[in-house]
Design goal:
Length: 204
């Protein structure tokens, strides 16, 4: 008579032999995905380090410490609603007549546009009177930082969307955005203000 224990062991061994082979823990496709993920993480880390260590050799003295700090940190960030704007009034979230930009997905990038040396053509810096902030001065666009309450001391900068000039309203010193950056900023601000680009003709 066969031993039941031996029969059970034989049956188990036969069953195990019919099982499919165990999958490999690491496959070629898995290695590729891991390498792609590591490469992406490295690229993002490099971009962050580069951003945090952006050159401000020219922008720092151009803006001054207080203005540069406001551009970098202050909230809310708002665009003066120009005459002829068809943007919905709900965008004037904090103050009537000022379109809120604070919730921009790329607000950090938007701030850095005005702080990184590489975004400007410094050979073109000059003296020029910048008109005071007014809705009638488009294509001068006025961006305000830090009007968190009525008594707050906010900082406003001006950008000429057709020519690329940047400075402080009422001031007489301008720097010039490079052409690629000027086009990006002009497109974004015209999109938010909903002002026909044809109305933004040079007035200098």
């Amino acid at each position: 008579m066969n031993d039941p224990a031996e029969a059970s062991m034989a049956e188990r061994a036969s069953s195990e032999e019919s099982w499919p082979p165990a999958p490999r823990l690491v496959t070629f496709r898995g290695c590729v995905f891991i390498l792609l993920g590591l490469s992406f993480a490295f690229a993002m880390a490099l971009a962050i380090v580069r951003t945090r260590h952006m050159s401000t050799e020219h922008t720092a003295p151009f803006w001054g410490e207080a203005v540069a700090k406001a551009i970098r940190l202050d909230r809310p960030v708002e665009l003066l609603r120009p005459s002829g704007s068809t943007a919905v009034k709900d965008l004037d979230f904090y103050h009537p007549g000022w379109i809120d930009l604070t919730e921009l997905r790329d607000l950090g990038y938007f701030r850095r546009v005005f702080l990184a040396d590489e975004n400007f053509d410094w050979s073109n810096a000059r003296t020029m009177t910048i008109p005071p902030a007014s809705a009638d001065q488009w294509p001068w666009a006025y961006i305000r930082f830090g009007q968190s309450h009525p008594q707050a001391v906010a900082t406003t900068i001006a950008v000429h969307l057709n020519e690329g000039w940047v400075g402080v309203p009422g001031g007489d010193r301008v720097a010039c955005l490079n052409e690629g950056m000027r086009r990006r900023i002009a497109y974004r601000l015209q999109l938010f203000a909903k002002v026909n680009a044809k109305s933004a003709e040079p007035e200098l």
